[in-house]
Amino acid sequence: STKDYINLMKEQLNFDAIKKLISRPDFRFRYDAMNAASGPYAVDILIGHLGADPSSLLNCTPLPDFGGLHPDPNLEYAEQLVKIMDVFKQKPENEVTDIPEFGAVGSGDGDRNMILGRRFFVTPSDSVAVITAYSHVILPKGKKLIGVARSMPTSGALDKVAQAEGIKYYETPTGWKFFGNLMDSGNVQICGEESFGTSSDHVRQKDGLWAVLAWLRILAHRNENTEIGSFVGVDQIMKEHWTKYGRNFYQKYDYEELEIDAANKVLEHLKTKFDWFMAQYSGAKADTFVYTDPIDKSVSKNQGTRFLFEDGSRIVFRKSGTSSSGATIRIYFEKYESAPDRLDLDPNDALKEIINLGLELSDIKNITGRVKPTVIT
To answer: CA 327: distance to chain centroid?
Structure first.
């Protein structure tokens, strides 16, 4: 039954405000459940309780094989919705008005999400930052946001909001379990990670549908007093956010199925670059991330190699997997910009120098023999 979850969502979010948004003639949305677990919940909430048109929902019948879909909420696997939202701007200009104002995708077990606007992709790192910035209209009435947390590889966009608004923020290793102690102790109410996971402390796990409803609540708030035909969309909300807090340009390179010895050599080589990096860039730091849980004082070592610039830009290296198929090295490139004339840069242009530096620091091409990454996100 979906009843318990729906009752919980009614306690967490203002359904009346979202229902008003959905009833606007200038607002259209699509939610793609990818024939997976969130489908029945989305149907019951979005259609049954919020009055959405059934055509707004895609692939909401759970199927054993997901109907041939790959239920990962990303730009590659959510191909149908990405095309509808024209994220890559392939439609002619005279068809742009046919694109919905909002789109979202669920995952296999409903724990993750992807947020889209008209011709616009919201990175998971930006999504949790925006949700935090609008927490005063998202969280239940009377509930105060005390703290937020992100996994270490997730961009520092969340940190910028927390710093500006006087909110405590925590950086944890990858893995939702690390958020548990922070939530149980009441220190954190909103968490997020770069792998499309976002949630609040209403559960101790990622909750993709909650994140989608939170974004609908943001849109409802921003359009509470706007005239019909003057809708404030996802792209405008993001641009306003970047103007206020700055923009963290972000890209990830995955080098998969590396020989384990070669992957280890890359990480060892990086340590030899710490002193050079800190001498080369004023205010820079380089280290191997160690996390001490502030609640139970447990220590997690070797959680990633970090090259940190004074302004919040970063290059992060992390190894995962040591199976017979080899290891994966993930490189996270992040460039912070606050100058108004640089907020609309193409991410590839904004990150070009820092990507080149990261590849030079790691010498990954020579050590592993890989000319390029397996996947770029």
So the answer is: 24
Alpha-helical (H) ranges within the chain are 3-12, 15-22, 39-42, 79-84, 124-133, 135-138, 157-165, 177-184, 208-222, 234-245, 260-271, 274-280, 347-362, 364-368
pLDDT tens digits, 165-191: 999 999 999 999 999 999 999 999 999
Confidence class for position 95, pLDDT limits 50, 70, 90 = confident
Task: Find how far residue 257's CA is from the centre of its chain.
Answer: 25
- Its pTM stands at 0.95
Question: What is the 3-state composition of the chain as percent helix, strand, coil, each rounded to the nearest 5?
Answer: 40, 25, 40
What value does the mean pLDDT take over residues 315-332?
86
314 three-state secondary structure: strand
Residue 137 CA neighbour count, 13 Å, CB half: 20
Q: Are 215 and 102 in contact (CB under 8 A)?
A: yes
Rounded to 5 degrees, φ, ψ at 106 are -100, 180
Give the pLDDT band of residue 323 (cuts 50, 70, 90): low
